[in-house]
Write a structure and sequence with these properties.
Strands 1-2-3 form a three-stranded antiparallel beta sheet, covered by helices on one side. With about 200 residues, it is an alpha+beta fold. Helix 2 crosses helix 4. It has two domains: about 80 residues, no CATH class; about 100 residues, no CATH class. The protein starts with 9 loop residues before the first helix and ends in a 23-residue tail after the last strand. The protein is built from nine helices and seven strands, in the order H-H-E-E-E-H-E-E-H-H-H-H-H-H-E-E.
């Protein structure tokens, strides 16, 4: 049984094992929550398991066993952490890739739509506004662009770019086999200009 665990103790809650449990806690589905007890029933979609937890005990294997033997010193499992999160006892500062994607995805979509509404600037390469290239989303695409030549050249040497990131147009300079991003053809209204994808982020 877990006794007098301090969820605000940074040292106790920031070991690698406890951080991983807090990350996993964010992916649990809350089936039942009794704040007066407190007690929670949580479903793990990955393991397809349901467990019952209070702030002092849980019926899951991780809480009760270390390998084939019992724990001598108990620590919160992901179910207890999720209950503590629901009760406001734990600040959510650790997220795994699933939780980060669920949290960041909608924000990234909103930011992309905002960038697409910016007026075009002919003085900037590709005709995109300077703010587009300076945004965090586009800087990430620029960083990822450097892996294309080594890993994905066969999939991007075509016009227009076929990736799901963009429908913008770019061309290939066959004299030195370097990729040259260009703005959409002005006389082709069928080409829709979006923010540049990573294939359009290589400097000229």
């Amino acid at each position: 049984m877990l006794t007098h665990w301090d969820f605000t103790d940074a040292a106790a809650n920031s070991t690698s094992q406890q951080i991983n449990r807090q990350k996993s806690a964010r992916n649990l589905v809350v089936r039942e929550l009794d704040r007066s007890t407190p007690r929670g029933v949580f479903y793990d979609r990955h393991r397809k398991e349901t467990h019952i937890a209070t702030l002092s005990t849980c019926d899951c294997h991780d809480f009760n066993f270390a390998g084939d033997g019992h724990w001598r010193t108990f620590r919160p499992c992901m179910h207890i952490y999720r209950l503590a999160i629901e009760l406001g006892l734990v600040d959510v500062i650790y997220l795994d890739w699933r939780a980060r994607a669920a949290w960041a995805g909608p924000l990234a979509e909103l930011e992309t739509k905002r960038l697409q509404r910016l007026p075009r600037d002919p003085s900037q390469w590709g005709g995109w506004a300077a703010e587009v290239h300076e945004s965090g989303i586009q800087q990430n695409r620029q960083y990822r662009a450097y892996s294309i030549v080594r890993e994905e050249q066969h999939s991007v040497l075509q016009t227009p770019c076929s990736c799901c990131d963009s429908t913008a147009v770019w061309t290939l300079d066959r004299s030195n086999q370097s990729m040259k991003p260009t703005a959409p053809f002005r006389n082709n209204p069928s080409v829709v200009a979006t923010t540049p994808c990573r294939g359009l982020s290589l400097s000229r």
